[in-house]
Amino acid sequence: MDYVSPATLTASTKPTGSLTLKGIRKQFQFKDRELKVLSGFDLNINPGEFVSIVGPSGCGKSTLLRLIAGLDDSYEGVITLDGQRVAGTSLERGLVFQDHRLFPWMTLEQNVALALTNRPLSKAAKAKLVAEHIALVGLKGFEKAWPHQLSGGMAQRAAIARALVNEPKVLLLDEPFGALDALTRVHLQTELQRIWLSSGATMIMITHDVEEAIYLGDRVVVMQANPGRIVHTVDVGLSHPRDRASPVLHRLKDEILAELTNPPVEASSVVPLRKDQDQ
Ligand SMILES: Nc1ncnc2c1ncn2[C@@H]1O[C@H](COP(=O)(O)OP(=O)(O)OP(=O)(O)O)[C@@H](O)[C@H]1O
Ligand SMILES: [Mg+2]
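A: This is the predicted complex of the input protein with magnesium ion.
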C-alpha cells in the first residue's frame, strides 16, 4: 500500500498548521548586560497562511524563527502548534536558510533523502517522496547532480525540497532568496507561491525585500528594534496567485517602506535639549 503521510490524512479532516505565539520575551546575555531582543510578541497564524516578516537588521527576526523551530527554548511566553506547546525541534517544522547548506559530497537526491533518515518508511516510500519533492521544486532531471553543479537558485530550491520532504505543517524561511540576484529572486518567488499553494503548509518567511513580503504574504508583520516587537500587521487581502503589477501591492509597498525608513519617534528615545543648547 502506498504511504499516506499523517499531514495528508489530517488535511482531509481538519486543517493543521495553526501557530500561536503569546507574550514572547527573549533576552541574551551580552558581556555584562542583558540584551532585550523580543518584547511581548503576540501573533496567531492560521493553518495554511503565508506570513511575511520584515524589520530592520537586529530586530530579532531570526531569533524569533529559531524559537518557533525549537532551536532555542530559553524564552518567556508560549508557542503552540495546533494547540501543542512547541518543545525542541520536530519534523513538523521545517527550516530554510539564506545559504542552502547542502552537503557537497552528496547528490541532490541524497541530500533530500537525508531529511527522511528518521522516518519509519520503506525504501520505496522514501524514494517516492524524494522524487515527488524534487519535481515539486522543478528540479526533475537533476537528481544525480552534485551541489557544485547547481546554480544558486537551483540549490535553494533543493533546500526547499529537503525541508518539505517531511511534509511539515509549518515551513520557516529565513531570507531564503537573500543571496540570489534580482531576476532569480523574482522567479523563485513565483515558484515558492506555487509550491506553497500545492503543499498547503503554513509558511513564515523573513525577508528584507518588502516587495517580496507583500507579493507572497497573506499578512506582512512589520517589526521594529530595541526591543524587537510588532508595530504593524498588514492584511494584503489579495487572492493567490497574484499579479505583480497590482496597484494594491504597489501602494502597500510604499506604505511599509515609509514605515520602515521613518519609524515613529518614541518619547523614551527623545533626549530633552539643555537650556544652553541651540534650538
Ligand atoms: N546568541 C546570541 N548571543 C547574544 N546576542 C545575540 C545572539 N543571537 C542574536 N543576538 C542579538 O540579538 C539581536 C537580534 O538578532 P537577530 O539575528 O534575531 O536579528 P535579525 O532581525 O534576524 O537581523 P538581520 O536582519 O540582520 O538578520 C541582535 O542584537 C543580536 O546581536
Ligand atoms: Mg536574521
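The chain has two domains: 15-39+47-80+170-261, 104-167. The longest helix spans residues 182-199.
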